Amino acid sequence: MFDFNYFTPTKVVFGKNTEAKVADLVKEFGGTKLLIHYGGGSVVRSGLLKRVTDTLDAAGISYVTLGGAVPNPHLGLVYEGIELCKKEGVDFLLAVGGGSAIDSAKAIGYGVANEGDVWDFYDYKRQAKGCLPVGVILTIAATGSEMSDSSVITKEDGLVKRGYSSDFGRPKFAIMNPELTMTLPDYQTACGCTDIMMHTMERYFSNGGNMEITDSLAEGLLRTVKKNALILYKDPKNYDARAEVMWAGSLAHNGLTGCGNDGGDWMTHKLEHELGGLYDVAHGAGLAAIWGSWARYVYKNCLHRFKKFALNVMEVENSGSDEEIALRGIEAVEDFYRQIEMPTNLRELGINPTEDELALMAKKCAIGVGGEKGSAKVLNEADMLAIYKASM
Amino acid sequence: MFDFNYFTPTKVVFGKNTEAKVADLVKEFGGTKLLIHYGGGSVVRSGLLKRVTDTLDAAGISYVTLGGAVPNPHLGLVYEGIELCKKEGVDFLLAVGGGSAIDSAKAIGYGVANEGDVWDFYDYKRQAKGCLPVGVILTIAATGSEMSDSSVITKEDGLVKRGYSSDFGRPKFAIMNPELTMTLPDYQTACGCTDIMMHTMERYFSNGGNMEITDSLAEGLLRTVKKNALILYKDPKNYDARAEVMWAGSLAHNGLTGCGNDGGDWMTHKLEHELGGLYDVAHGAGLAAIWGSWARYVYKNCLHRFKKFALNVMEVENSGSDEEIALRGIEAVEDFYRQIEMPTNLRELGINPTEDELALMAKKCAIGVGGEKGSAKVLNEADMLAIYKASM
Question: B6 to chain A: which residues are within 8 Å by CB?
Fold first, then answer.
């Protein structure tokens, strides 16, 4: 196993009506003037935003608001938020929403706390030296951004989608009320479950340094999400299933399920980022559409892990050769995707890239990872193109 | 499931030679004048203390030292540490050792950061409003105090052993090098594994609010420790097994394996605390000696959990009635204790209390928990006495 650091300072306040605690938490972490950052109208329509501002008003905490965070959040809005924070003297960012609002808030936080262009951090040019504190009221279980060190931003010019990770960006608190996720469209719920599982699967399919305890936590988490995703497909208002998935979402991406390994593979995410940059598809659905092709392309190079995954997570029949078991596990994942109406290829995702577009995505993906990357199997541009083609 | 908070801010730096990073970590968390608190001579004899002070010297960080923390750490030494810190202007506590040194350092931290008698916190009289920051270099995998909010101190007058929990006491960082645990006597290694498992078992055997994901993490952790405890019994220098157990020790007690439940049972710990207060036995061995009697006394009141534990952790045969499966699981735990030479009753623990002493312990235990306590089954003084008697 490899040495590792583990740092998850986010204070999680989990359960019904926990959003009522927002003012106390903001005060605990020193916020006096907030930017409340959210996405589309659902946070407004549901009345959540008003409940939050009423609570802040009652506590005498002042704030400005900035809506409009979209899936694959845009750099333009980040710049707008940075200017607004500077103009208004904001000292705390409150993200109300899912990964888009949180990622965007983190980027705004980096932009306020550091000189120069915030895109530099996403463009691998330099490291942030701080971040304005971020608090979260989570409304979508998916990205795990509420406890993670990472954020993903899309630069509109060239549709470049990039992630940046820094412990400075880890939220100070995360308010997690499973009831807030009940009004999500079924498709978004399924996308979230896919994303959650993928965050842990990316760490799991690695060729270096795996720890038994990390594996057992990862496998338990994956089984739980799989089971509860199927429950939610039939019963979206099931509180316990919502809660299981919501908490799994945080644990899947706060680092816990990667302790001791080489950092994981992450190529499914990288391949999807190019889809997301070019087509603005839902992240979870994009991951589902690409994963099977990735898995079949790489599994022979990481056979022991694919076999273990097949048996301990997908619980397939333990018979035949290692390859047969591994392939049975991959098929079982795709069957699971179909059961929750996730796509298993680009056509089902609703896109039909040309040869040139596939080549462009492979080229951008290779540039994005600095040439080649992967742990289950190191992929170069030609490999990436082959996987994109196989996923058509 | 129940609502919960989860807060584990400790920065974990895990792996070989990580103690070399101590000066950087102390600086990161603002320490300028340290009290280095440690236990017996092993930290001195092994050369670890010198390596640490050399690193601090090279970084220009000044410090004073206080050794002498013993298992079931004493209040007298805590008072001594508080005086020393005040006299020397200490602003950071570095615990080098196991749970005794860490718990004692936390208590010193409460004593320095709050007015009045520090014992008040352990005597349920009031809550701490802060704690001097604590950093840890861990040398024993057992108590989980390196990430937990709890510390246990014994007041010499009356041999009263009490725990106090506060988020203020959670260490800022924990340096965890599995190699540092390799020189432990085999008995202490086995005690540590027992304590680690018990921290999660106390949370697991509860009648309220269990979450599937918490259960799956707990079961995975318990299987991992059980397996690696047996490896270490035969091969104490096995680095990977040391690492598995060490990381499990932190996760077993940082709150992760109790999220969503009612807080757990904890009566085995409470019953052992009285043993530890009166006889100065090793904590882990005391837990092992009492657990089987506790389990047989309560299992019918928490049958579904004992059955699940038997199947998913102890992996016993799934046949017969629920009661038979549950009892098979309890027997399997005792068999496991015997395999690693842990006691399964007070006689094997090496003590032989009189009737009066048993009654005194039951009485003190009942007072300590405010009359009655437990989740698997609520126990009063008569129940406690019955369990003590059954464990003879």
Answer: 11-12, 14
In degrees to the nearest 10, what's the CA dihedral of B313, B316, B322, B324?
-130
Interface residues on B facing A, Cβ-Cβ cutoff 8 A: 1-9, 11-16, 18, 211-213, 216-217, 219-221, 223-224, 227-228, 240, 243-244, 247-248, 251, 256, 259-260
| Residue range A132-150, pLDDT digits in tens | 999 999 999 999 999 999 9
Chain B residues inside the 8 Å CB shell of A213: 220-221, 224, 244, 247-248, 251
In chain B, which residues have their Cβ closer than 8 Å to the Cβ of A221?
213, 216-217
- Whether residues B220 and A216 touch (CB distance < 8 A) is answered with yes
B213:A220 CB<8 A: yes
Judged against a pLDDT cut of 80, whether residue B88 lies above it is answered with yes
Q: What is the 3-state secondary structure (H, E, C) of chain B?
A: CCCEEEEEEEEEEECCCHHHHHHHHHHHCCCCEEEEEECCCHHHHCCHHHHHHHHHHHCCCEEEEECCCCCCCEHHHHHHHHHHHHHHCCCEEEEEECHHHHHHHHHHHHHHHCCCCCHHHHCCCCCCCCCCCEEEEECCCCCCCCCCCEEEEEECCCCEEEEEECHHHCCCEEEECHHHHCCCCHHHHHHHHHHHHHHHHHHHCCCCCCCHHHHHHHHHHHHHHHHHHHHHHHCCCCHHHHHHHHHHHHHCCCCHHHCCCCCCCCHHHHHHHHHHHHHCCCHHHHHHHHHHHHHHHHHHHHHHHHHHHHHHCCCCCCCCCHHHHHHHHHHHHHHHHHHCCCCCCHHHHCCCCCHHHHHHHHHHHHHHCCCCECCCCCECHHHHHHHHHHCC
Mean pLDDT of chain B: 96
What mean pLDDT do residues A103-110 have?
98
Instruction: Tell how strand A33-38 and strand A92-97 pair up.
Output: parallel
- Core vs surface per residue B209-238: b (16+ CB within 10 A) or e: bbbbbbbbbbbbbbbbbbbbbeebbeebeb
**Inter-chain contact B3–A14, Cβ cutoff 8 Å?**
yes
Q: In this complex, which of A15, A211, A217 lies closest to B243 when CB atoms are compared?
A: A211
- Phi and psi at residue B66, to the nearest 5°: -145, 110
What ipTM is given for this predicted complex? 0.95
Average pLDDT estimate for A56-78: 94
Closest residue to A5, CB basis, from B1, B11, B221? B11
Identity of the residue in A2, A5, A217 whose CB atom sits nearest the CB atom of B12: A5
**Cβ–Cβ below 8 Å for A213 and B247:** yes
Compute the distance between CA of residue A208 and CA of residue A185 in angstroms, rounded to an integer: 38
Query: Which amino acid belongs to residue A159?
Result: L
Contact A2 B16 (CB under 8 A): no
CB atoms B251 and A213 under 8 Å? yes
Yes or no, beta carbons of B220 and A223 under 8 Å apart: no
Domains and CATH numbers, chain B: 11-180 (3.40.50.1970), 185-390 (1.20.1090.10)
